Each structure stands twice: as structure tokens, then as C-alpha cells.
Amino acid sequence: GTDVEIIDAIERGLGYLKGFCQEDGGVYNEWDDPVTDTAALVMTLLVLDKDPTGPEWSRSGDGANPITYLLTRAYNEEDENFGGLYDELLTATYALQAYIMLQGAGLGDGEGNGPPSGGGNGGTQPPGEKDQEGKFQVEVKVVGKGGTALFGPRTVTITDDNPWGRTALGALHATGLSYEDDGGFVWKIEGEANAGMSGWMYQVNGVSAAVIASAKELKAGDRVLWWYSTDPNDIPSWVDDPELLPESPGEETGLDKELTEALAEAEAGEEIIVTLIEDEEGLKAVFSAAKVQDLVEKRVTLVIKGPDPADPVLIIPAAALATEAVQEALKEEEVPAIRLGYRRLLTVEEDELQDVITGLGQKNLFLVGGTLYQLELTLGEEPLPGFAVGITARFPLAVEDKSDINFIGLYRLSGAGAGVKEEFIPGIPVYEEEEDRWYIEARLDRFSLFAILRYKPFFADLEGHWAREAVELMAARRVIAGMSEKEFAPDLPVTRAQLVAMLVKALDLEAVAPAKPTFRDVEAGTWYYTPVETAYQAGLAAGRGNGEFDPAAPVTRQEMAVLVARALDIYLGRDTENYQVEDILGRFEDRDDIAPWAQGAAARVVQEGIMTGMPGRLFAPRGTATRAQAAVVLKNMFQVLGKII
User: Fold this and answer.
1) CATH class of 137-229
2) Helix ranges (DSSP H) in 288-380
3) How far apart are the first and last CA of the chain?
4) What count of Cα atoms within 13 Å lies in the side-chain half-sphere of residue 80?
5) Fold of 254-455
6) Which residues, 6+ apart, have CB-to-CB distance to 558 below 8 Å?
7) pLDDT tens for each residue of 518-527
8) What stretch of H or E contains 635?
9) Per-residue pLDDT averaged across 337-352, rounded?
């Protein structure tokens, strides 16, 4: 219909609602929930720029109106809730949303007596805050169709004679751009008019307001973003990409200036702490790619922190930023900026994330803390695919039960909805005593979407088994797997291929898969091909001779000791020869049965508490190791390496 028909329909609807005004100030049908109805009415009136405190919305002689009802009658102090005839949560949500909109509109003085002077009334605001020069200034950016920059970001002055006063519309007026409005509702800027579901929107300090622009009061220094929206989820960034750089090399500002000053004071190899700044896009740090060269030369490490102590911490060696793309950018006449940081995605606020959580739950993976982290790294307009060397990231663990920590891990997510795919990122728990907070620390080679997930595997054949805890823990750390989805087969012998695969995962060794197999009995395409080749290249495992590995052969206990000792050597770099073999192994009755080539390794794993004897003071070196024993040994090794608590 036409604008006239729409306005007429709105007025008829309001007339209908006025018939439900009650003596207590509420506006509701007596068969419905009064708080829900009244809150919905108040929100509707605010969107229409109507005053809920007007006389047309009051039936009593004492001035009771919808706002006085919400402020004095909606909340039940005795029951500590908002009531709710049908849905208490829904009622509370409606009430809280109405309060938020009332606060944004500046309506109500705490007693429901109407708007304070100047609130939403054009240019009648009191002088308010001004700078030392007596000016009221805000920052404004206007983005038109297709992302075309029409203005700013730039500082404007809202003068005392501005027809819209110190409001979001007053800020637009101060830009000098042409615009048209209907009672304070902007529908055209610079000739670009609203059409269908597309049109002009605005934010103040990254928050979309629930009132028309002429009613949104500003404070000095506020950031006002206007943009032509075709997609409500596509909001322009405050600073255009590539990020703004200093006007000349001699005029460093912002983080560039801070880094220069920090580098002047830092010793080679020291850390420089950078605190991320929060804006509408999330938490970020922006600096010229030209600074990378200075950072690398001094071999410093950037420690990136958020404003909240519970935010993730990124520990980035300068060399990690010296990617090929950055080095090529340094040759350009105008060097672009590097932007790094992250966005917190709260699952309770993002509907599209609910399907992701559902998909993870079907795999027995459950989100810890209610937040996903979208880590981002860009060079100018282009995302950087990764780092030149690995970085370290610490994510906070929101856990009440310390015993859960070992079953919580960091995962990289990809895909959408219930079809989400997860990749386990090996990490270690870290406790910060000063903060009294646990973190999970992991090495990252690139940024993406990350989640902290809890995984507690279940194997039916472990019920009552002595090794159940160790098996479930190592399965949660993605070191071991079952023989099937529900069975682990704990008492079966562990094979050479199985144990090698477990140790490769435990050490997080970089995968090796040559085109030509090293062993004639380990063929490409088998599940153990890559683990065996990786272990061989790392010096973890060798063949049996004659060009064979013998992957299906059971592992003896002394062979397991040797493989575990080699794993410790790879991870810690300590030699087994430093252990007093005779003293350590002398406790075992069958000490002489341990092969000479295994004695040093056996002494080491016994001394470290990774392997213990069998009943009767025996080490049983030639006894077959079971899958359950392997799980326990791996768990003990993880504790020695600090990978679990």
C-alpha cells in the first residue's frame, strides 16, 4: 500500500490497543500476561517514536501509564521474577528488552513521568559535554550502496543551532551531506533512498539503536556509523580496508607509535605487550606491515592481550609475521596494515551457531564457556593464510570441576550448521596463579574459528576395567582410538603399528608420507602408513630388518619401554644413559631377563614413574603389552610431559 495507507493502518492499530489501558497503567488483555503485553506495547511505541507516557495511554487520575507499570509493577520482589502466565522466561525477556529501549530513548526519570528535557526533541538539548574549545564533537562515517564511502570517518562539530541537536540525526546533519527525513526518520541520503527491505541504518559506538535517529542522544566523542543496508548481517567496518596508515613515515600514530617506543626500550628477544582495542568488529590490533621488519630485527615477541583478563592471549614471535605476503608488501609504495585479533561469538546470541552446537553434540562434543572465537589476521584487504612460524595461543577455561580439565580440548571448526567438522588441536593446561585461572595452551599455524569443547568417550567393554580412566582420558586427547565405535578391546595385545601411531599422536609429530614406502610390509594407503613413516623419520621407531617393519606384531613390555624412552628423548632431549640402571632395575626379580639394548630405556621409564612392575616384583620384559597397558603408560607419560594435570 501507499505511505498514507500504512500510516492509517498504524493509527487504527494504536486506537485498538488504547482500548486495553488498565487502571494500574498497564496495557493488556486480561486473558494474556500483563507484563508481556505492556512491554510489547512500549517497544512498539518507541519504534514509532510515540511517547508511552502520553495521556492517551493512561486511564487513572494518578498518572499511571505503561512506563510506571513496567518500573513499579512488573517485577515481583517477593518471588524475584516477572511472573509470566505461560512462559516466565519469555516474559522476562520482553520486560528487559523494553527497559533497554527505554534507556536508549532517554524516556522515564525513574518514576515514569515522561521524557527528560531535550530527550528526543530535536535541537532543544542542554549544552552537555564540550571540549576545551567549547565544541561538541563526534565522529561520523557514512557508507552508501555497494559499500561506497560517502563521508569519513571524520570528526564533525554539532553546533548549538543544529536543528536535530546532539543526536544521531544531528551528527548526520553536521556532515553536510544531503538527506531527507520523515519526522526524524531518515529515508534518503545523497539521493540513495530506502527501497523494499533495504535502506538506511545507523549505529552508535557499534550498537544499533532501537529508536529513530532524531531520538538517539549522543555524548562527545561518540562514533556514529550510517550505512545503506541490504543485509542486516553485513555491517561496514569503521575503518576502511586497507586500514588507515600514518600520513607520512614521520607521523606515526596509534600502535605504530607505541611499537616504536617499545622497541627503543626493549632488549633483543624480549616481549612487548599489546592490548587489543574493542570496536564493532571485535578486538583488534592494527599496525603497519613496515613495523614487522623492526620487530624481526630485534627478535621480539608480541604478547597480544584483550582488555578482559579472561580473554585469550596470543604469543606471536615477530618472525611469525614475516610471511612471503608481508615481505612482498614491504616493496609496495604504500605499505598496507596488518590487522590481527578476534571476535567473541556468543552462542546464545547467534542463532546460526545453534545448529553448530547441535552437530557437535551428536559427536559427544560439548561447548565449554558458551563462546566461540573467530581469530582473524589480514594484510590490507586480504586475509593471511597462516604464519611463517607457529605461534602460541592461550584460551581461558571456564570450568568449576578441575577433574574436567583433562577432557577439555581446543578444536578448529569448519563447515556450517549440523555438518560442522572439528579438528583437535593438541594443547596443554596452564594455571596462572595470579589470575587463579586455567588456560589451554596450544600452537597454531593459522587463524580460524576455534571452540573449547569437552569430550568424554564411552567404550562399552571398559565397564569395571582397571584401565578405564586412562583409556577414556587418552581417547579424549585423541591419542588412542577404539577397535570400533563402542569397543576398545583393552586386553588385546597392542601391535607395533598401533603403539607407534599412539606415540606419533602423543608427540604431535609433523606427518610424513613419502611417495615410496620405506618398508615393504607397510604399504601406502594403509591406516598405519603415515604414522610408521613419521615415526621412522623422527627416529622414534626402526624396522625389524630385511626391509620390514612387522606392523601387526605384538609389542613386548621392554619394546614398549624403548619406544616410550625414545619419545621422551624427542620431546625433552634427555639421554637415557644418565639414569643409574643397576640401582633402578635392581628392584625387579627378573632384572637379568631385560635385554641389554632395553635396560637404559627401562630404567628411565621406571624412574619417571611411567612404567611399573608386574605382581611378584617382576618387570616381565618379554611379556606382551596390552592395549590397556599402553593407555596407562601413555597417560603416565603425558603427566611427566605436563600435557595433563
Assistant:
1) mainly beta
2) 290-297, 318-321, 324-329, 351-361
3) 67
4) 0
5) Chondroitinase Ac; Chain A, domain 3 (2.60.220)
6) 594, 595, 598, 601, 602, 619, 621, 622
7) 999 999 999 9
8) helix 627-641
9) 79
